[in-house]
Amino acid sequence: MEPVQRIEGKALPLGYSDVDTDQIVPSDALKRIERTGFGQFLFQEWREDPDFVMNRTEHVGAKVLLAGENFGSGSSREHAPWAIQDYGFSAVIATSLADIFKNNCAKIGLLAVELPEEIVNKLLEASRKDPEARITVDLESRTVKGPGVEAEFEMDDFTRHRLLNGLDDISLTLTYEDKLGEFENSRPSHWPSVI
Amino acid sequence: MSGSKTLAEKLWERHIVREAEGEPDLLYVDLHLVHEVTSPQAFEGLRLAERGVRRPDLTLATMDHNVPTWGADRPVEDEVSAKQMEALSNNCEEFGIQLHKMGAIGQGIVHVIGPEMGITQPGMLIVCGDSHTSTHGAFGALAFGIGTSEVEHVLATQTISQRRPKTMAVTVEGDLPVGITAKDVMLGILKRIGTGGGVGHVIEYRGEAIRQLSMEGRMTICNMSIEGGARAGLIAPDETTFEYVQGRPHAPEGAEWEAALADWKTLKTDEGAEFDREVVINASDLVPYVSWGTTPAQTVGLDGAVPEPENEGHERALKYMALTPGTQIREIEVDTVFLGSCTNARIEDLRAAANVLEGHKVKEGIRALVVPGSMRVKQQAEEEGLDEVFKEAGFDWRDAGCSMCLGMNPDILAPGERCASTSNRNFEGRQGRGGRTHLVSPVVAAATAVMGRFAAPSELGVLEVS
Ligand code: SF4
Fold first, then answer.
1. CB-based contact (8 Å) between A18 and chain B?
2. Does the model's ipTM exceed the 0.90 cut?
């Protein structure tokens, strides 16, 4: 995972609530066996509408995706954050994020941030009015800045530390081999195995 | 009472490998379920880092999401799907993982085969790269869905790093009214708590009505916990659970069974333990539900009408569903009826639907299909003659898989097609681009197939549904 410190760029004012993972990446796009190339399927169905916000030229090159409540609900497919990242976004700001989605974002270094509704609305408004408006997400100071907005977001120290340094979870866990072995040896014998 | 714990807390604590201030807990995984869609990139990651699978003996794979459900003995026509299934075969072979391939008797939807083999047991921690892993919580196991990076982590370390969730109790008080199925109970719960009601929480379902449910019914409930945003769903194990597990291929035997049983009996929320959130529902308020919108919380009683929109989201949903407020649900005609998915394709679901269909025919022009949750469910249904009932009524009788639940195999809705579905998600495009999904119970699905519009089994003279 690449380290992430600070994202700055234009936003895409999507704004919808209850955007589920099927809308982010439809299931017929999940058949690839690679991690890359999912950007082309992002919001595939909505993109067929020429008026859909993502199709407007003024928002091309946006780095921050702005959404409403309960973004990323539904399936556990990591293909959803992959698609968002692959398309060119580096951060998602929403009123609230679904649990697994939020987790998945943290695993791949896509900044996913929750902010109160009035602040997200201000950012949406700013970006709709001026598509060039810059939004900054700073992980070091845990703040989001935009036209007329400066807000702090919550992120636990551990996740932040991992993101800032681009740390790989697996290597970290493998350093606890002793504890792992100890735990395994104490597992009750009646617990099943597939063999 | 100090020291009292909820079931979720007990399950969590017995799996902690390492904990440290400010960090997520490292938990041990007792069973890792794997399927073809969310695993290829994880195996690729292992190969790149030259890592192996730590516990192939605690890892089980199946093909379900994009297997065709007819002609299992023929080559898969969709080349991309075929490639994904081949990748799973190769990965399982390379890393020594047991795989139930298309056409094999052990094959089926990942959340159906675990319980069926007796591998899903009380007290365990189960994960899978699939959000409906919550299904296994019906046994009093802690079970949740994970993303592909986490799948890779579990493969390599047999652990998962997670923050402790909050706890929530949903109590359904009173006896389950006649004609109300587990699916209706859950749709009723979702209507009440909404799609975000469980976010960050593990929900424990409690109360008389929940206790009265069979294991199949409990799995239907826990399955849809994720539709309320919950991390997992749980039901404390009891005699119903023990009876279901006993004698299954992987169930403990003899002295081990006794040891297991003694342990399982401790798996309940202590008297006086506190939940972070509590919701109480009266079973007598529940009715058979039909979803009208594009989230599983947008439902209305079968006797009701399409509601007036209350916000922009509702308007978008009504437009997508092509419904007018005020239309009676019973007047809405469907094109397709899908009986399947990890929510409602177990033997009991099939029995209940067949019971409604007996002696009736699917209305002309309606496409109706039954996709059993596993090949074993299929086999058992055939032994009981249920397949004949379905076929005689005009249903397609298929092989096991996810099928039209998510439209990755050839079974999809055409744009604008309307479907009564026993699955769990009615999102836009879920069953095929432009398709319109209405979530219902198996018995309502069966009656709807016969009437060609949403209908109750009682309209066909069937009063006893279970
Ligand atoms: S049946 Fe549907 S919900 Fe269940 S695992 Fe398959 S695709 Fe997911």
1. yes
2. yes
